[in-house]
Specification:
Length: 130
């Protein structure tokens, strides 16, 4: 049974509660999403048209520089290659629109992995790279 989608900006505590996650499962799911983030943010074919022509855009790419098509493709890939431990949690996020299969759980974890990495990178720059 899938759960109704939540917005990307939902708090981590709400995702824990909604899915009944443990810290260990959360870490595994975030690790799987981080692999997807790395795949997305290293391939220029995943960029939006605007980002492709912007000479300031460099790897690793940010969430907002990536096309929705690339994100969607990666979300479905994350779900399809999920480990036996994480698959039941990702499966709870599956739903269909009139056209596509979607997964709010995989989308949230992928978005969260970008947010975590991008915030960490900004903090390192602010601290002189430390």
């Amino acid at each position: 049974m899938s759960l109704r989608p939540l917005s990307q900006s939902i708090e981590k505590s709400a995702v824990f509660s909604r899915l009944g996650l443990t810290d260990q499962i959360y870490t595994l799911m975030l690790d799987e999403a981080a692999l997807g983030r790395d795949r997305l943010s290293s391939n220029p074919a995943n960029l939006t048209p605007q980002s492709r022509v912007d000479t300031r855009v460099q790897q690793p790419y940010r969430w907002d520089q990536l096309s929705e098509t690339a994100k969607h493709r990666e979300i479905l890939y994350i779900v399809n290659v999920a480990s036996a431990s994480t698959r039941p949690y990702f499966d709870r996020g599956r739903y269909n629109t009139h056209v596509n299969e979607e997964n709010w759980v995989a989308r949230w974890f992928l978005w969260h992995s970008f947010r975590y990495r991008d915030n960490r990178d900004h903090k390192a720059q602010a601290n002189g790279g430390k």
